[in-house]
Amino acid sequence: MPYNVALISMPWPLANRASIQLGALKSFLNQNLTDIRVVNIHIFLDVAHNLGISRYNAIAENTWIAEAVYAYILNSELRAEIVSSFKKACRSIPILRDQCVEDIALRLKSLHEKSSIWKVIEKADLVGVSICLAQLASSLYFIKETKKRFPEKKITVGGSAVAGKLGQSMLENVPEVDFVINGEGELPLLNLVKLLKNGATDSENGVPGLIYRDTTGKAIFSECNQIESLETLPVPDYDDYFLQLSRLPKLHNLIPGLPVEASRGCWWHRATPEAPEKACQFCNLNLQWKDYRYKTAEKVANEIEHLASRHATTKFFFVDNNLPLWETDKLFRHIEKHRRSYQIFLETRASVTKKTLLLMRRAGVEDVQIGIEGLSTSYLNRIGKGTTTIQNIEIMKNCEELGINNISNLLIGFPGATEAEVEETLEALEYVFIYKPLRIVKFWLGYNSPVYYRAKDLGLKNIRNHPKYRYVISEDLYSNLELMQKDYRFDKKKQEKIWRPVVKKVREWKEFYRKTKERYPHIPILKYRDAKNFLIISRVSYDSPESECFRLRGASRDIYKFCDKTRSFGSICRKFPSFPEKDLLNFLNTLVDKKVMFREGNRYLSLAVNIDVRRFCS
């Protein structure tokens, strides 16, 4: 008989995306073992079908709203507080405003109790549960329910929410969990399956990358065990996801996005506990990785084409923290050769050039999240981005020009941020109303982030689990588990106060952009048309019946086009030696005053987008 493994993903991943964790693990196990049967069960799909995908995804997009649903089932003594916090959190979300967490929770409890998945679990020799963002309460519910029904079942958990010491604390405090995979799962899960398949009842001898209990019940920690080369990995297996979709009447017409992976880790993240300053200070996305590994451009492009053909979808999203810059141009040239009209999402750094963005756009990249985070260079230095304000504005402009939807963030409230940095941010905001608005994201302290290790030096005190977890898990677990989101004492009230003008300004930005695009949906707000020996710059606004226009002729036109990318004053002087420096400086500053050019120090950037560029993007 084959050895049966059931891999589980509970709510709340977005329902229109398959689980790369489950897909990658199933594919790897099947590649390396015979006489094995792996079934991936996306329980979140059943929940999305039950609630409706719009309501499901609205819940999934807010971590604490999502965690509250299964917390209500798990913690009868906390239900009054959960009802109150859920209602408060949903006020600003129209589709959830009238929802009651009790109704949703009891509805899902009934769904799970009657589910046919328990027949699959009954046959499984090993049950694996992937626990990532917003899956803590739902996974604990499933784990406890599984052990209640089948006490003999071996359960292992893995994922970013249980990496490192988070996982060790899980094993120490949740008796229903038998093993925890620390970091990436392929090798530890493979070796665990081999061990159990051969008749072992536990992991006494130790499996690298697997946290287990010894004969005394003590949790034994193990460092992560990673695959040396990602080139050896098979294509993720998403067949079970599509099979489930086909059996759900309300979802079977859904065209999902498929996750793809070009790399693991982040080449910018060089931080260690001993040298935590060498990375984005707030980021703990590399919790489960060590070092940076990547696939060749050819392999990634071939995986995308294989998945597109097999599952008849054009939607893909890269799960990489940071694509390998040295492979990126080659990768998107390969993808473009597929001659398929893809819809691709990815994350990247602000250092990506317009040339690379154009290659991405031609290959099908429609949405990007750029690591912008700040519009003050001193603030960007504080948070470890290694970028500048003018660099961030340049890539915002390039996305606007190429028709790429920029869904990036503006991080506020980082510990120690100054009023001067806030003022610099406000000044920069005056120049970017012409581009897609950034989303305000408030700083939160993440376990294992560089700032977590620098807490003492920065003055952060009384670091503890975030108090919102008190409404997710029991008081005993809250006190003893090591959890992902942390709270601290320092300058939070001060930060909230000094960033209020930025929050207000971004709100105004969103309103201006929305209204202007409603009135002028097909043109950029600030654009130019080039006519060889002159160009015309025009600006539109929702509250103005006519465009604001003016011409730049001859050398003035040439200078503006030269500054299409960031240029130093010295380089402009060298390019246009016939211009007296004083006259050149006056001309540039006039453009800055008109807000058609941005200046940072001695560097200049033209802000109007070339209306002609988009016609060459596809």
Care to describe what's here?
The structure is a single chain. The protein contains 25 helices and 26 strands. By secondary structure, it is α/β, with parallel strands linked by helices. It folds into 3 domains: 3-220; 257-519, pyruvate-formate lyase- activating enzyme, CATH 3.80.30.20; 526-616, Orthogonal Bundle (Arc Repressor Mutant, subunit A), CATH 1.10.10. It is globular, with a radius of gyration of 26 Å. 44% of the residues are buried.
Describe the SSE topology.
Layout: E1 3-9, H1 20-32, E2 36-42, H2 43-51, H3 53-60, H4 63-74, H5 79-90, H6 101-113, H7 117-123, E3 126-130, H8 136-149, E4 154-158, H9 165-173, E5 179-181, H10 186-197, E6 210-213, E7 219-220, H11 239-246, E8 258-260, E9 263-264, E10 293-294, H12 297-311, E11 315-318, H13 325-336, E12 343-348, H14 354-363, E13 365-370, H15 377-382, H16 389-402, E14 405-406, E15 409-412, H17 419-429, E16 439-442, E17 445-446, H18 450-453, H19 455-458, E18 461-465, H20 475-480, E19 485-489, H21 492-498, H22 500-519, E20 526-530, E21 534-539, E22 548-553, H23 554-562, E23 567-568, H24 569-575, H25 581-593, E24 597-600, E25 603-606, E26 609-610
Parallel strand pairs: 1-2, 1-3, 3-4, 4-5, 8-11, 11-12, 12-13, 13-14, 15-16, 20-26
Antiparallel strand pairs: 5-6, 6-7, 9-10, 17-19, 18-19, 20-21, 21-22, 23-25, 24-25
**Average pLDDT number:** 95
The structural domain count equals 3
At the fold tier of CATH, the topology name of the largest domain is: pyruvate-formate lyase- activating enzyme
Named CATH architecture of the largest domain: Alpha-Beta Horseshoe
Share of residues in strands:
15-25%
Number of strands: 26
What share of residues is helical? 40-55%
Structural class: alpha/beta
